[in-house]
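Aim 2 progress update. The chain analyzed this quarter is reproduced below.
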Amino acid sequence: MVFARSARTILGRLYGEPAKTGSSPQSVVPAPRAAAIDGEKNSLKTRLAAAVGGRDIIAAGSFHLVGLAAIKERLGADWERVREKVHEQTRRVIERHISPRDVYFAGGVDDYVLVFAELGKNAAQLVCAKITQEVQQALLGDSDTCEIGVRTVVSETDGSLRLEKTKLTDLVASAAIEASTATATRTDAEAPETAARAAAMPPPAARTFSEAEIVYRPVWDVRREVLSTYLSRRIASLAPPPGTATPEELAHIDLVALRAGTETLADLHQNKFRLRLSFPVHFEAVASVPRFRTYVELCRTIPEHVRKLVAFELIDLPIGVLHGRLAELTAAFRSYCGIIVATVDWWRADLSQFTNTGIRLVNAAIAPGSNESRTLADMDRFARAAARAGLQSGVEGVGTSSLALAAKGAGIDFISGDRVGPCVEVPNHMLRITWSELYFGKPRAG
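Predicted structure tokens:
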């Protein structure tokens, strides 16, 4: 059976749906590198033909499905609200793992079809398993390796098609056996070639993030009417677009921010300045055990007399992160700080997952350019959700007196933004700012 039909025809046969001959697949999402090489002029049909290259892709094991059913089940009622975000994250992960000649597109409501141009069945299955694992890790905070499976379209003897599901554990075991066999039969002549390839590889790009890019945003305590905390932030104009930094880059940013901030905090404390500094901890950065250990090692260097003045702010927590995973994370940091904060999305109506985890405050940021009337409603809902969960609440991005008034009226505990004061290069001593001074625009922080 030479592959002469479109990928949609295969899906139609697989699911018992009539194929639409002559119609092009919709919701096409070409890999960026392929788009750069082929250009916008190439249709999906052309790229599929190039990827297939006249092969029987079913027999070759090149036709696979990556689905989001497990994530949808874990998220439950939150699924519809975050569905687009889940798909966006899935597409990013897929594009990171496929080659320029590979093709992928939406094969169903919550499925993606991947057609590999060169990989054999086993190699393609491992890539799909890795994609599934990374998507679950990013969105749920964990991935149940035992439950991860890869779906490959295979042909029966009667010509019908079915989905063959293979567990990741079986794939890994099979790959280990193959690797062991290949190693045993490899000739010594390959060694010089391998060394030459390694020598020819370009060095990794140098890190560009430095202490000079760190600024501190002042936070106003609504109830005490005092400015006592500063958030460690990267200069906005120098920060990469959201979602583009790698876990290694995020880890580097977190380490630099913590190292520079704790030195600054110790100096200020020695000069009788009293304030609290909050440091970012990106979840992706500490999801890896080696990176997590590196961060904790740096935490151990924080002088004991200033640890109570340190706050850790957990950023980009997966939507479905487990209660136990959060508790483990906060337990590791608790002895090095005075408080642990979680940054969350506005729309979260249920914050109970943070209760009894060691997190005491949830913080949400108002996106630049947000509709103010919509933001007022979001703020009120967010404050109520935090109160129901027994948590304090904070809002970042308060730039107007009306937003400050809404935050105070909603019961928000801490606010930051241009209305409170601009980011500064060096934090200042605790400062008393009354509500009238904040609201009417008298001199503020910075």
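The radius of gyration is 26 Å. The longest helix spans residues 247-270. These observations will guide the mutagenesis experiments scheduled for the next reporting period.
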